[in-house]
Structure formats: structure tokens, C-alpha cells
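Researcher: Next sequence.
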Amino acid sequence: MAGSEIDAGTPRHLADKYAIVGVGETPYLRGAGSGRTTRAMGTDAVRSAILDAGMKASDIDGMLSYSNNDSTPAPFIAGDLGIRLNFYMDVYGGGSSTEALVGIAIGVIEAGMCKAVVIFRSMNGYSQVRIGGTGARSAVPVNGDALHSRAYGWQAAGQMFAPSFMRHMHDYGTRPEQVAMVKVIHSEHASNNPKALYRKRVTVDEVLNSRFIVKPLHLLDCCVETDNANAIIVTTADRARDLRHHPVLIRSVVGRCCKPRADMHYQHGPISRVAGYYAKDILWPNAGVGPEDIDITGSYDAFTFTTMLQLEEYGFCKKGEGPEYVSDGTIRLGGKRPNNTSGGHLCEGYTHGIAMVIENVRQLRHDADDSCPIGPDGKRQHTYDYREGGCRQVKDAELTANLGWAMPGTGSAMVMRRG
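Model: Next structure:
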């Protein structure tokens, strides 16, 4: 949808005033792991984002990060790059953080506290601190949410989220083979992504025949854990027009919206209801568009089921119709509304959501980093041939939606458009 068509209905004065102008990442690694510190990886990712934007280190004066006590503070990264900060903040959080921090970046720039903000996530999520409590640094203190959840055997995310998934199956007749299609389709997208960790295409049978982790989740229903760092840069749209890439404008942001109870969310409302049910009432009015206008979604895929539940709650289909929506080809490259065109957390690498924003930025630049040839002008010549090893660029992409997830009770979201 052209920008002139969506401007008329926009009710909020910040829509299109800010942009993401640079993105950077390190390789997604497993096996022996990165062999590097989160400080080294974070510094590389931020440097890459600065170079990608066509900026200098001195152009950055704000920095935000998020972690689960598994990363390096922003001032350390900034100091290693020779950046003096006018504003920084390191927050505790995972999957719902990226979009929320984009909102904070907009706010602090709007308030005149700084001019350009880098947001980064650096994690040795496979070799060092694994979410389930294993890895080289496996000692997980019992505090915060764990004071409640650990007593009930809810240590890993799959254990905590499984009741929401099982309830959806009970209420709507959701079949495992339908939701397995999320993994199948994301693996197709990853097969066209040179930097994805898992590039092999899989079948529904392979998903269903992989071992159970916690019902209804099979191994291949679960995301891959990786070591990696990612970074994005937020600044004003006016400044973006003088930088390297076609502007990617921010239409709307929702930051860490939650159900009436975020901890024991099942005590209020349906167990299968997730925070997107509430977030959509902020996201779409502020964006001046609706789900029907979106060309690409980046729906958090910690598990196949998380993608399905969010697509329902944000209105891409009706509640209970998610199994059909994710299995009928709609979310496949070449379909009506592709989802996680990089392969997402299920296949590319696990980044607590920030890589999904990076992917949609590249899609809106019309420059997804796939295997298509580079032309004489230095630009990728996309073929739109989505067979294995080919293209993953969505043709004429104009509007994207990122749907972040922390747990069923908490989520974040963002709408971006090609400027």
C-alpha cells in the first residue's frame, strides 16, 4: 500500500516520524558456540549496524540493550567503539523487548535527550546461558517470576506455555499436523537464507516424528538456541533520508502490553488468549492500517504454536482459524502474507525477536540477503523464484508487522513501512 494512501487515516502524530536506518548481526552459531564474549559480539553487531546505515560512531549518542542477565552493558559496548552516550539503558527482558525499546528510543529522541539510538541484543544462548537452565553457566537463581513458576515445574518456556497450546487444541480442534506447517514453511524460507543455521527443508512427518519435549511440543516445534548478537539503529525520518538506504519508517509501536495478569495469565480470560488480544487495539489505530493491509508478518516463533496464537489475536484470522491460516499457504513465500521470511527462531537462529525486525527492515528495503545474484549496480537482482536455494524477497513489500512475545501474558508489536 502506498504511503499516500495510509497517511490520511493516521490518528497519531509520531507515525512515520522515526525510522530504522541500520541493521547488523553476527553469525548464528551452535556446535562449539561462538567462542567469544557477549561484549565482543555486541561490539561487532553495533559496528555493523553503523556501517550499514552509512553513519559514523560519533553519530550515535543513545544506546539500549536487553538481556536475561546474560549480556554486556551498553556503556561497555559504546566505549569499545569510541561512542560517548547522552542516554543509555539496559533492561531485563527477552522476547517482548525489541519493539518496546524501539518505542523508548522514539520517546527519548522526541524528548531531545539524544539523536540516534542503537538497540542491541548479544547472547551466548547455546554455549553459555540456555533458557532451560543448562549450558556452561547453568546456575539459575530462584528469584523474580521463578519464585512462583519453579515450584510448579515450570522452568523452561515450553513447560510454561504448553497449557495455552493444549487448551487451543481442546477448544478449537487444532491438530498437530496443522501447526507443524509453521516449521515446514519457515524451513522453506530458511533454505533461501545463506546465514540461517538450519537450511534443510523439513516435512510435517519429520516434525511429528521428532521426540516430544513437552506435549504438544515436539523437538521440531521448538526454536533453535544459538550464540549471536544483533543491532538496529533508530533515528528521525528526516535524518534517514540522508543516509545509505531507502528509509524504513515506523508507523506504530506497542511495548510490553500484557493481560490483566501477566504471571498467572490463565486466571483472567481464556487460557489460549495471548497479549496480542489487547495489543492490537493500540497497534492498528496508531498505525492507521489494519491486518488486511500488511504484506509480511514477523510473528515470534519460539514455538510453532506461538506464531499461530499471535496471528489469531492480532486479527490476521479469527480466533480458532489459526490452524487453517498457518497451513493453507498464506504464510509461505509466494502466499498472501509470508511470515518469518528468514526462517525465524525455528530455523535461522534464536535472537529474542530482534532478528525478525532486521529481516522486515531488509524486506522493506527490497534487499533481502538471499542467494540472488548481485547486478552491475551492486544491488541484488531478485528473481522471486522461491524454490530451495533461491529468492526470499517478497515482491513490492510496503508494510510489515512484527509481533513480539515474552510469554502468553505479555507481548510487543510494531508496524513499519517502506518510505
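Model: The chain has 14 helices and eleven strands. Residues 9-129+157-418 form a domain with the Peroxisomal Thiolase; Chain A, domain 1 fold (CATH 3.40.47.10).
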